[in-house]
Here is the input.
Amino acid sequence: MPTLRGWALSGAGLALLFLWYGLGEPELLLAGAFVLFAQILALVVVRLRRSKVAVSRRLGSSVVHDGDTTTVTLLIENGDRRSVTNLTIEDDVNRLGVATFEVAKIDKGASTTATYRVTCRPRGVYHVGPAAIRTSDPLGLAELKSTAGPIDRIVVYPTVETLTGFPIVRGQDPAMQASRPEHSRRGGEDFYTLREYQRGDDLRRVHWPSSAKTDELMIRQLETPWQARALVLLDIRAASYESQGAFESAVSGAATVVTHLIGSGFDADLWAGDAEPIDASRYGPAMERLALVEPDPAVDIEAVAGRIRQKGGGGALVIVTGIADRPLLSVQQLLSTDYPTTILLTVSDSTAPALIGFQRLGVSTVSISPDELWAPAWMTAMRSSWTNASVG
Here is the structure.
């Protein structure tokens, strides 16, 4: 099809023909015919020079964090029996930009490479390609478009900070100086204890031999030995956040805590809007979930806590939110039996009244403004926890 230059030239040719028709000057006829013939010739040349160009792509890293830079290298191979010239290669990284390369000539059977850098911001999943190939005539009057190469993905995780320490409070395992062990649904087949069935318990955990002896349904609670447990709950309610920046800080906080817990040997789960918590030890899927999470104006956080309690679990509970409110306080109280250790991370420019309620219940609180980092506030909370533990 004609390029913008080709359309302009064709318009000029038609204008010359109209002038010839009105004025009768033969020079105008010749000029107009020559211009239109040049455009037709360009279209024919481009179609006859249809090339067999293959494009493959190599990513420096397909997984990065918000703000990181990665490289993309294109390998352009000429599979034709003749040289190809005047190629334009465009590689589109959706929402991040388009890289454009001009290739003057590739000999038959030869190849060339083109490399560009992408700054990955904000978090999310981006698709790269397929590459768009444009072949044009030497004068740039016509071009032929095609696509080549695969579609690749770049997953941009939220920003992650480096944290140090964990509160010395109730609920950690013996190896972590715990007051009592906790239970993990990913535990082995060793019993930790038996207890009577409670409404909402998973019936798959019924220990039938003991139930037959006692005439009461008895539930198995399994143990993951010498490993701490935790649940990171990201509050995705849109009303909890003063701004989109506050929500992004909360997502970064959840990603930071997940990374810290997994790196510290915790058996951690993550809830970020799914039907039920996901296994955060599968780090890639957990971080990709956080890369895609968005605020939800309709979520019922108390109902979510009820479902989590029915599934069982235990250990430390880390709640990440914007403005702490009463429904979130109800969540903590509902889960406190299984999760006696609670840490609350909040992002807000103001102090919520409900925050005092959390603190009265012995919840460790980490509070920042949307433009602040988590690590300093986390360390302050850790020191406060250590001091309280020493005094106690």
In short: The first strand starts at residue 53 and ends at 59. The CA atoms of residues 348 and 362 lie 21 Å apart. The chain has nine helices and 18 strands.
